[in-house]
Specification:
The longest helix has 26 residues. It is built from 13 helices and 5 strands. It has 273 residues and is mainly alpha-helical. The protein is globular, with a radius of gyration of 19 Å. It has one domain. The chain is 54% helix and 10% strand.
């Protein structure tokens, strides 16, 4: 497995280089200078880490402190089953704004992943590689803001926890733009089923913003996007959606605590969701 991981890291380094080249071809005119320079000076040796994960690995693919970390074996063993067993939601095609109308419906209807995994005979490395495009767009789309502290009662005990304001919108933007990018360049991407509702809100937002969407997405924070829209009730709707989403994710974290020692819970709770 160690040799496989080393080979996978080399493959990912080449793949990320290829993706960055395509990203700059598509979006250079919209990206701020700082993000262009970050891509052009990307440290492929130190900014990409391949590991086997651990008990508390947050995700099989993640960006932390500008480092892309991938844990292919953890993902395949612990996460793929959720994609196969869950009833996946789909985005209402009527909400798709005009600029997205030429995209095939399959971009928004991702409920055939079980067939995808079986027919393509995907390995853990194939599946993890399919998450890279989403993560790279986190380098480009940075609309989330500061952490907010919450208090939640669990099993009769109060815990403090953190959630990031604007993250609901950022995940929706990143997932949608990543899917469109993958489709345009005929690249394999493993869609994240957890962000279907986030995408639905992004599509609604894009209807209101119109032709300035790309410029705002790559240059604004979440408030800049929401403030650009004058539709009554949209900010309130977003606040409600994000709060419900954070609560849902926190409940999911609570469920995992059955395997965690009591003294470790408070430290885990104060990690950002």
């Amino acid at each position: 497995m160690d040799n496989e991981i080393l080979d996978f890291k080399n493959d990912i380094k080449n793949y990320v280089q290829e993706l960055f080249t395509l990203i700059l071809e598509d979006y250079r005119n919209y990206l701020p200078t700082s993000k262009i320079e970050f891509i052009e000076n990307y440290d492929f040796n130190n900014n990409i880490i391949i590991d086997k994960g651990g008990k508390y690995t947050k995700a099989p693919a993640r960006i932390e402190n500008n480092v892309l970390s991938l844990s292919p074996t953890i993902f395949y063993d612990n996460f793929v089953k959720n994609y196969i067993d869950n009833d996946l939601k789909m985005v209402d095609i009527d909400l798709v704004e005009e600029k997205f109308k030429n995209l095939p419906y399959e971009l928004f209807n991702v409920n055939d992943l079980k067939t995808l995994i079986k027919t393509k005979n995907l390995s853990c490395f194939d599946v993890c590689k399919g998450l890279v495009i989403h993560e790279l767009f986190h380098y480009l789309i940075t609309v989330k803001s500061s952490s907010q502290e919450y208090k939640i009662i669990y099993n009769g005990k109060e815990y403090k926890c953190k959630g990031v304001i604007g993250e609901y919108l950022e995940e929706g933007l990143v997932e949608l733009y990543a899917r469109m990018f993958a489709l345009k360049h005929n690249l394999f991407m493993f869609p994240n089923i957890n962000y279907q509702d986030n995408i639905k809100f992004v599509l609604k937002l894009s209807q209101e913003i119109g032709s300035n969407m790309d410029k705002l997405v790559f240059n604004s924070d979440y408030l800049g996007l929401l403030n650009y829209v004058h539709k009554n009730g949209l900010k309130e709707e977003y606040s409600s959606l994000e709060n419900a989403w954070l609560e849902k994710r926190m409940i999911s974290r609570f469920r995992k605590m059955n395997e965690i020692k009591e003294e470790e819970i408070e430290e885990l709770m104060m990690e950002e969701i």
